[in-house]
TrEMBL record:
One of its GO terms (biological process) is metal ion transport. Pfam families: ZnuA. GO terms for cellular component: cell envelope. Coiled coil: none annotated. GO terms for molecular function: metal ion binding. Keywords: Metal-binding, Signal, Transport. It is found in: Cell envelope. Its main location: other. This is Periplasmic solute binding protein family.
Length: 381
C-alpha cells in the first residue's frame, strides 16, 4: 500500500499549502493523520508476500533502525497531510475509508484470503513461500502486523506454534480465527500422546469448507462487501470441486499395489485418505521439529523395501538429504519433483496457489508411482 489510498482508489493530493498550514487551527486532524499515516506505512512495509516485507524483515533485526524511523516518517507525513486537509476536503474522513487489515499466517491461508477478499481488504501474509510454519521464528515485523490487524486468520492445531504463542502474548486486539480447526482432525500418536494432525488442507473438500469459513469471517468484518466476498468464494470453491474430482480420477490410474506414499514428514494423511493412497511410512511425524534417528532411517528403508514402492518423495520445505539416504538404502528412486507440503511455491512457480499446489502434487505422485497422468483441463500443469 503506497501513498494515501482507500477502497475507491488513489486520492490526489492537491491544494496543499505546506507543512505548517492548519497546524495552529486544527490540532486534532494533525494527530489523526499522523497516527493513521504511521499505521498505513507500517502495514505496507510489513507485507510478507512482497519484496517490501523482505526488506522490513532484514531491517527489523537492527534495533537502532527500529528505534524511531517509522514513527518519525509517520509524524512528518501527518504534519504535511494536516496542511493538505485544510485546503482539500477530499481528505476529510479518509481513515473511515481504510480497508480492513487482515493477517494470514500461512501461505495457503493467505492465498484463500487473497482470492476471497480481493481488492476489498489489505492482506498481510506472515510466512513467505517455502517457509516452514512448524519451526518459523517470528521477527519484529510480525508483532507489528498482528497488533495492527483487524482480523487474524491462522491454521490452528499447533501448525504454527511460535506465531500462536506470539498472538497470545502480544498486544493483539484483533479478532482471531483458527481456519483449520473447523475440520475434524485426524489423530497422530507420538511418544504415547495423541495430538491433532494440522495438515487439513490435503483434502480439497476441506479446502472448500475453509474457504467458505474465511468468506464468512470477511463478511462479518466488512458487511458492505458481502456480495463480492460471496462471489469470489463461489468461484474458488467451484474450481476446487473440479480439482477434487480430478485428483480422484488421477490416483485411480496408479496400479492398485503401488498406491503407497512415503514422504519426509507426515503431512499427507488427509490427502491419502481422501484419494485412496496408503501412507506406509515417513521419516518424521507431523512436526518438522523432530529429528529422525539412524534407527528410524533404517526402519523406514526396510519398510520401503518390503512394500516395493516405485518411488518415495522429498518435500520443498525440508532438507532432502535423509530421505535421499532412505531411497539409496531401499534401492528405490527418489521422485524427480518434490512435494509441496506446508507451503506454497514462490510466485510464478507451478504451486503458487492452493489449486496449483494440489494439481502439481498430484502430477508428481501419479507420474512417480506409475499412473497415467492427464492434465487438469481448467489450467493444470
Amino acid at each position: 500500500m503506497t501513498g494515501i489510498t482507500h477502497s475507491q482508489g488513489r486520492t490526489q493530493l492537491q491544494g496543499c499549502t505546506g507543512v505548517g498550514a492548519g497546524l495552529t487551527d486544527n490540532v486534532t486532524p494533525l494527530y489523526r493523520h499522523a497516527m493513521a499515516s504511521s499505521r498505513r506505512l507500517g502495514r505496507a512495509i510489513a507485507k510478507s508476500d512482497r519484496l517490501p516485507h523482505r526488506r522490513w524483515v532484514e531491517q527489523s533485526r537492527n534495533p537502532t533502525y527500529n528505534g524511531g524511523i517509522f514513527a518519525l516518517a509517520g509524524v512528518m507525513l501527518g504534519l504535511w497531510l494536516s496542511g493538505c486537509e485544510a485546503t482539500n476536503p477530499n481528505l476529510q474522513g479518509i481513515d473511515a475509508e481504510d480497508k480492513p487489515n487482515v493477517v494470514a499466517t500461512s501461505t495457503i491461508i493467505a492465498d484463500w484470503t487473497e482470492q476471497v477478499g480481493g481488492d476489498e481488504i489489505e492482506l498481510t501474509g506472515i510466512l513467505e513461500p517455502g517457509a516452514d510454519p512448524h519451526v518459523y521464528e517470528p521477527v519484529p515485523a510480525d508483532t507489528i502486523a498482528l497488533e495492527q490487524a483487524d482480523l487474524i486468520l491462522y491454521n490452528g492445531y499447533n501448525l504454527e506454534p511460535a506465531l500462536i504463542k506470539l498472538m497470545q502474548s502480544a498486544g493483539v486486539n484483533a479478532k482471531t480465527f483458527a481456519v483449520g480447526e473447523i475440520v475434524t482432525p485426524l489423530d497422530f500418536e507420538y511418544q504415547g500422546e495423541t495430538e491433532p494432525d494440522p495438515h487439513v488442507w490435503g483434502d480439497a473438500e476441506h479446502g472448500i469448507k475453509m474457504v467458505n469459513a474465511i468468506r464468512d469471517r470477511l463478511i462479518e468484518l466488512s458487511p458492505e462487501d458481502k456480495d463480492k466476498f460471496t462471489a469470489n468464494a463461489a468461484q474458488l470453491t467451484a474450481e476446487l470441486e473440479q480439482v477434487d474430482t480430478w485428483i480422484t480420477q488421477q490416483i485411480q490410474t496408479i496400479p492398485a499395489n503401488q498406491r503407497k506414499l512415503v514422504t519426509t514428514h507426515d503431512a499427507f494423511q488427509y490427502y491419502a485418505q481422501a484419494y485412496g493412497l496408503e501412507v506406509i511410512g515417513t521419516l518424521i511425524g507431523i512436526s518438522t521439529e523432530e529429528q529422525p534417528s539412524a534407527q528410524t532411517v533404517k526402519t523406514l528403508s526396510d519398510a520401503v523395501k518390503e512394500a516395493r514402492v516405485p518411488a518415495i518423495f522429498a518435500e520443498t520445505t525440508i532438507n532432502p538429504a535423509l530421505i535421499e539416504t532412505v531411497a539409496e538404502e531401499a534401492g528405490v528412486k527418489l521422485a524427480p519433483s518434490e512435494l509441496y507440503s506446508d507451503s506454497l511455491g514462490a510466485p510464478g512457480s507451478k504451486a503458487d496457489t492452493y489449486v496449483k499446489m494440489l494439481i502439481t502434487n498430484t502430477r508428481t505422485i501419479v507420474e512417480a508411482l506409475g499412473g497415467d497422468y492427464q492434465a487438469f483441463l481448467n489450467g493444470g500443469n
